[in-house]
């Protein structure tokens, strides 16, 4: 059963301007450890590609915070939510710490889609119960963690 839907559109130019003012501190505030590795690798090859990656992750985290109904309030935190890619390219959510515990305690699973063009990044997140029969009776077994994008 779907318990939340979130969407977000992010102006990549705004992310570029924030990056110009705050630099690495901005990326370190928004991206988790695995995302930071991908960001640095993409940015080293082509600056615009790295900034687009940062924009899609910013957008996806905003959409996720809307889908779970918390906004950017604890246990939701920028770095506690990572959007990584499986080997085939599919984006997946990887949650950490208190956010992961909160999410698992409710038996939730999330699905994310991201896209970007020159000026805009967009994302869509659907959160549903892992097993409708367990909706109010605690979490089922957690899904295995996706592999690192390295």
TrEMBL record:
Record's catalysed reaction(s)? apo-[ACP] + CoA = holo-[ACP] + adenosine 3',5'-bisphosphate + H(+)
Q: What does the record give as EC number? A: 2.7.8.7
Does the keyword Cytoplasm belong to this entry? yes
Q: Which residues form a coiled coil?
A: none
The GO cellular component terms are: cytoplasm
Write out the annotated subcellular location.
Answer: Cytoplasm
What's a single GO BP term from this record? Answer: fatty acid biosynthetic process
- Which residues are noted in the entry as Mg(2+)-binding? 8, 62
Gene3D superfamilies given for it?
4'-phosphopantetheinyl transferase domain (3.90.470.20)
Q: Where is the composition biased (Pro residues)?
A: 141-150
Which segments carry the region annotation Disordered?
131-150
Q: Read off the NCBIfam families from this record.
A: acpS (TIGR00516), pantethn_trn (TIGR00556)
* Function in brief: Transfers the 4'-phosphopantetheine moiety from coenzyme A to a Ser of acyl-carrier-protein.
Its name, as the record gives it, is: Holo-[acyl-carrier-protein] synthase
Species annotation: Piscinibacter sakaiensis
Q: Which gene encodes it?
A: acpS
């Amino acid at each position: 059963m779907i318990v939340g839907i979130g969407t977000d559109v992010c102006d990549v130019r705004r992310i570029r301007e924030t990056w110009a003012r705050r630099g690495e501190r901005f990326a370190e505030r928004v991206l988790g450890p695995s995302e930071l590795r991908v960001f640095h690798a993409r940015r080293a090859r082509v600056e615009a590609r790295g900034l687009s990656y940062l924009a899609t992750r910013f957008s996806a985290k905003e959409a996720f915070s809307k889908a779970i109904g918390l906004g950017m309030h604890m246990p939701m935190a920028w770095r506690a939510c990572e959007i990584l890619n499986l080997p085939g390219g599919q984006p997946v959510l990887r949650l950490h710490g208190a956010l992961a515990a909160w999410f698992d305690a409710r038996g939730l699973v999330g699905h994310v889609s991201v896209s970007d063009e020159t000026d805009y990044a967009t994302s869509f997140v659907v959160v549903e119960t892992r097993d409708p029969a367990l909706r109010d009776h605690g979490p089922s077994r957690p899904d295995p963690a996706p592999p690192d994008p390295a």
